[in-house]
UniProtKB/TrEMBL annotation, chains A, B, C, D:
Its EC number is 2.5.1.54. Residues 1-67 form the DAHP synthase ferredoxin-like domain. This is Phospho-2-dehydro-3-deoxyheptonate aldolase. The gene is aroF. GO terms for biological process: aromatic amino acid family biosynthetic process. Pfam families: DAHP_snth_FXD, DAHP_synth_1.
Length: 337, 337, 337, 337
C-alpha cells in the first residue's frame, strides 16, 4: 500500500505512520519528494483494513496496491477451479445451463419445467422456494413444499438442483435438498449468511450484488472460502446503472476480468440482468462468447401465468432456440454444451 | 397502471389483457389510438406486481402510475409520523443527533465516547456490537459484550441506544438492549430480517441501500409496517455512483423527496456517505438545512486508533464545532437542537 | 402520454390541462378514479416536450408512453437500414471491422497500422487527427497533416477512413478526407455539431455518450436524421458506472435493444469501453454474438510507444488472433467477416 | 505515480520502465517485494498521461498519486480565488444568486423576470439565448435577439448577465453581450470550446458534466486556465445516477470537496439537478449550508407557460420565499446575501 502524506507535514506525523506500519510487520520504503513524502508499505494485505492510517494526522490518502482478497485470487491458485456437483464439473470445458422458473409455484409447473429444460439440454434445474420480493404483498415462495418438489424433479429427471437460501435460520432445511446453494444478489454482503454457508459441504453460487464492484464480489467469495468452503461459483447478473430500459446492465466484461483476477468459475444470468425475455437469448450467447462457464436462465412453461418474473422468462420454444444458438457459439469457442 | 400494447396487435391479445385485469378487480379505461391501443387500469396497487402483464402476448410495456407502497405513503397518512423513543420524539420540531463510534471496541472507549457526545448535545448513542465488514479478516464486533457496554453507557448518561441488528438469529439478543434497531444498508432488502423486526416492539432505523431508489427504500419500510411495526425512521446514507473521491454520494434531495412521498421521519448519516471526516461537518449542516429530522454521526475519542471507520470519524473537538454549526442552522430553519 | 393529477385537485386544474392538450391537437381520454384523475393524451409525440404540463397546477406527473424519437424508430421504418460507404454495406449480413490507432501520430505509424489491419481482414481504418484529451497537456492530434496521412493510407490499402470531427469549424476540412464522420462520446449531445453533420453528405458514426440512455442516444440520431442525413451508424462504447476496474462498462445489451427500437445499424467499440487491451478480444467476440454489425478496435504497431490510449491498444499479433475468433463466432451466428 | 509490475516479471521489463521514466525526467524509487516489484516515480504530473506505461510489457497497473491538474489546484494557490464580475465578487463573503428563466422567450417575459429576481435580491440574471435541447423538435432559443433582450434587461436593472455559449462559432457574438460565459454540462469536455473561451477576457461559469468526476471537472477548468483565463467559476448541477425520481442527483458534497482540492469558487444549480420545482428550495438552502458561493436558480413569471424547463422553474412567490430562507441560513453560516 502507498501512504501519501499531506504537503508540509511535520516530521512527527511521518514518524507516527512509520511506527504503526513497522509494528504491524510491514516493510517500509520511504520517498521524500519535493511536493510530498510518500511511504510504500509491503506486508500482509489482509491486515491493511484495520490500520486506520487515513485517520492519522498528516495522512492525505492511502492507495492500496494489491487486491485485498487472497484465497480467491489467481495469485493464490494459478489453475482454474473446477467445482464438482455430483458428476458435473463446473468451470471445465463443458458449459452448463441451469434453467427453470423463477419460483416453484406448484408440483405440476415445476415438473413440466424440469422436463422441458432437460429435453433442451440443461443439466441443472433452478427454482426458488424462498423468494426475495420487493413488495411484501407479492408471492413469497412455497418454502419447504417447494424444496420437496425440486427434489422430486431431480429424481425424475436427473437434473441437479440450484436454489436460493435467504437466511441462516432456514439454511439447514435448504441444504438438505439443494445441490448448489444460491446466495442472491441482495445477500451478497449478508456476512452472517456467508459465514454460515461456509460451514456447509455444498457448492455455493454467489450472485454479484447489483451495486458491487468486482473486488467486493471477490471479497464476498473470500468470506466463504476463509470459512472453509472452496466450492464457490460466481454469477454475474447485472449491475445497477442509470440505464433503465433494461432492469439492470449486464456487465459481461466482468467475465474475463474475474477470470484474470481469480481462479473461480463464472456463470452469467442474463434473465435477471435484462428483465425482458426478448433480449435474453442474444445476451446468453454473448456471455458464452465472452468466456462464461455456464448460464442461469429463467424458463417457464407459460410465462404469462408466472407468479414471479414472468416478463423475463422464456417460453419452452424460445429456450430451445437459445440452446441451439448457444451450442453453435460454444463450439466456435472450442467448448461444448 | 397503463398497459401499452404493441403496434398492430391482434384483437384477442387485447381481450386477454382486459380479461385478466377485470378478474383481478381492476376498473378499465380503453384507448384505441392510431398507433397503439392503451389500457388504463385502476385498482389495488399492491396486486399489480403479481399480474405478469408484461409477459402476455402483445404487451409492449406496463407503466405504473401510483407508488407501489401504501402504509408508508403520504396518501395513507397526511400528518408527519413522530417516532417516540422513551421521552424523545423523532420527527418533530427538535433535531436529534445520534453519535458515537462505528464499533464498540472496549468499555473504556465506549464510555468515553458516550460522555463526550452527551456533553456536546447528542441525545442518542450509536455503536455497533455486530459489524458488517467487507473483509473477513477485519474486526467483526464484540457481540453481546458490546451490547452490555452500550447498556451501561445508557445507564450512566441517559442517552438512548441505536445499534445494528444483522440477522434474525441474533435479533432477540439485540432487541433486549437496543432502544432503536438499526437495519444496515446491506440488509435493506434482507426481507427475512425485515419481517422479523416487524414483530418486535422497538423503533427501527432503516438505512437506505447504497443502490436503492427512494421507491425501493419505501417498499422496505412497507415490509416492516405491513408486519405491524409502524415506528420506522428512514436514514439516508449515500448512494453508489461513479464518483469515487467520496465513498458514496450523499443524496440530500432524498430528504425533501421522502418527506413529500411519505409521512415517516428521515435522518441523515453523512459519515458513511462521505467516508472522509473532513467533509462530514458541512454535509451534516446541509442535511439539517434540507429538512432532516436528525443526524447519525461517527465520533471516536481517538479516530486514528479506531478499529473500524477511523478515517470518517470526528474527533471530540470537531464534533463540538459541528454541533454548534448545526444548532445555528437548525434555528435559522425554525427548529431546535 | 399520461397526465396524473394530484389527489383532490380542483376541477379547473383538470380543465386547464384538457384545454392545453386539445389546443395542441391531442386526442383525450379521461379517467376519473377514486384516488386520482388520469388523463391519456394521444397525438404528435414530438410536441410533448414543449407543453410544460408538469408545471401546471394540480399535475403530479407526466408519463410518456411512446418514444420521443420518430425517424430513428423501428415504427417509422420496419427494415434494417444498411449504410453504404463506397462499396461497403454496414448493417447487412457482413460484419465490418474498423481498426487502427487511437491517434494518427506519424506517416510511418499510420501506414504500418493500415497495412496490418488490412492484412488481418479489417475493411475500414480508424485514426484520430483531432483528439479530445482529458488533459490540456496531452497530445492533441496532428490535425490536417493527420487527415492527409489517412487519405494516403486509404489510397495505398483501399481501406475506408473513419475519423472524428470535434467542432463545426473544422467539419468542412474533416469531411473532405473522411469516408465516415465520427461523433465522439463527449459530443453526442453537442447539438450544434449534430445539426452541422446533418447537412454533410457523409455517413455519421454516432458514439453513445458515456452517460446517455439508449433513448437519448436515439434522440441524438434523430437530430442528424431530422436535418436530412439518414446515414447514421450507432456505436456502443461503454457507459459510466460505479465499477472502475474497467474504464467504463460495456453495455452489450444495448445492441439487441437498439435493434428492437430502431432500424439503424449498431457497432461496438470494446477498446474504449474496457480501457485494458487484455479484455478487448473476449468483448469483441461477445459483441458479434450479441448481434453487432461491426467493431471498432484500437490497434497500434507498438502500443507501448503510443501517444494516446496505448494501454487499450492491441498488438498486431493480438489483433490477428481476435479476427480469427470473431470470424468463427460470426459464422456460428450466420454472418460473415 | 506508482507502477505495479506483474508477478514474476523478467528483469528487462523492469529496466524498460525505469528507462522510460528516467528519460522523462522522473525521480525513481524502486521497491522489490516478495510478491511484486513496485516503482515510485516523482516528477512533472502533467506529463504522466503521455507515458503509456500501462501498455509496456510486465506492467500490471499504474496508480496516480497526485491530481493531474495544476493551475486549478489548492497546492498551486492557497487562497480562495475571487472572480470579479464588474463590481460583484464571486467567491468572497457574499453569496450571489443568479436567477431567471431557462430560456429567453420574449422581451416581455425576460424584462418581467429580471425585475422580479432583482426585487427578491438576485445580483445576476440568467437566461439562455442558445438552448441545448434533447429533442430536435423543441424550441432552440432566440439566438442574437435573446442576447439583445438580456442586454436590455441588464441596462434596466443593473443585473449582470450569465448566458450559455454552445459553440466556438457563436462565441464572439455571445461574448459581446454576456458578463459571464456559461459552459453547459453537455459541453464540459468540448475541448475545442474550452480552448476558445480561454482566450476571451470574460469569466467562465463551468458546469459539471452529468457524468464527470470532480477530477475531470477540475481538468476541464485546467483547460481554460492553461489557455490563460483564470476567472473560472465552477457550478455543481447534479450527476447521473440510478435514482430517477429526481432528474439527476445533486452532489452537494462536491462543494466542500472542490473547496479542499481547488481555490476556485463553486456555485450550485439545484433547478437542473432536481428537475422538480417543489424540491428546489430545500436544496438551495442546503447548498448554502454546505458552503456554496452562489446559486443558479430558474425562475419564470409563469412556469406553466414556459417554453423550456417549466417543471423546475419557481414562481415569483416561491422564489421570494426561497431567498428569505437562503438569507437566514447564509447569516447562520457567517455569510451575507
Amino acid at each position: 500500500m502507498i501512504v501519501v502524506m499531506s504537503r508540509q507535514v511535520p516530521e512527527d506525523n511521518i514518524e507516527a505512520v512509520l511506527d504503526r506500519l513497522k509494528k504491524a510487520g510491514f516493510q517500509i520504503h520511504l520517498s521524500r519528494g519535493v511536493e510530498r513524502t510518500i511511504i510504500g508499505a509491503i506486508g500482509d494485505k489482509t491486515r491493511m483494513g484495520d490500520l486506520a492510517l487515513e485517520a492519522m494526522p498528516g495522512v492525505e490518502s492511502v492507495v492500496p496496491i494489491l487486491q485485498p482478497y487472497k484465497l480467491a485470487s489467481r495469485a493464490f491458485k494459478e489453475q482454474d477451479t473446477v467445482v464438482k456437483v455430483g458428476d458435473l464439473a463446473i468451470g471445465g470445458q463443458h458449459i452448463h445451463v441451469m434453467a427453470g422458473p423463477c419460483a416453484v409455484e406448484s408440483r405440476e409447473q415445476l415438473l413440466e419445467a424440469a422436463a422441458l429444460v432437460k429435453a433442451a439440454g440443461a443439466t441443472l434445474l433452478r427454482g426458488g422456494a424462498f423468494k426475495p420480493r420487493t413488495s411484501p404483498y407479492s408471492f413469497q415462495g412455497l418454502e419447504e413444499k417447494g424444496l420437496q418438489y425440486l427434489a422430486e424433479a431431480r429424481e425424475k429427471t436427473g437434473l441437479k438442483i440450484v436454489t436460493e437460501v435467504m437466511d441462516a435460520g432456514t439454511l439447514p432445511m435448504v441444504a438438505e435438498y439443494a445441490d448448489i446453494l444460491q446466495i442472491g444478489t441482495r445477500n451478497m454482503q449478508n456476512f452472517f449468511l456467508l459465514r454460515e454457508v461456509a460451514r456447509v459441504d455444498k457448492p455455493v453460487l454467489l450472485k454479484r450484488g447489483a451495486s458491487a464492484t468486482v473486488e467486493e464480489w471477490l471479497m464476498a467469495a473470500e468470506y466463504i472460502m476463509a470459512g472453509g468452503n472452496y466450492n464457490v461459483i460466481l454469477c454475474e447478473r447485472g449491475i445497477r446503472t442509470f440505464e433503465n430500459f433494461t432492469r439492470n446492465t449486464l456487465d459481461l466484461s466482468a467475465v474475463p476480468v474475474v477470470k484474470h483476477l481469480s481462479h473461480l468459475p463464472v456463470i452469467v444470468d442474463p434473465s435477471h440482468a435484462i428483465g425482458k425475455w426478448r433480449f435474453v437469448p442474444p445476451m446468453a450467447v454473448a456471455a458464452v462468447a465472452a468466456g462464461a462457464d455456464g448460464l442461469l436462465i429463467e424458463v417457464h412453461p407459460n410465462p404469462s401465468e408466472a407468479l414471479c418474473d414472468g416478463p423475463q422468462s422464456l417460453t419452452p420454444e424460445n429456450f430451445q432456440t437459445l440452446m441451439k444458438d448457444v451450442r453453435r457459439v460454444a463450439e466456435a469457442m472450442g467448448r461444448s454444451l
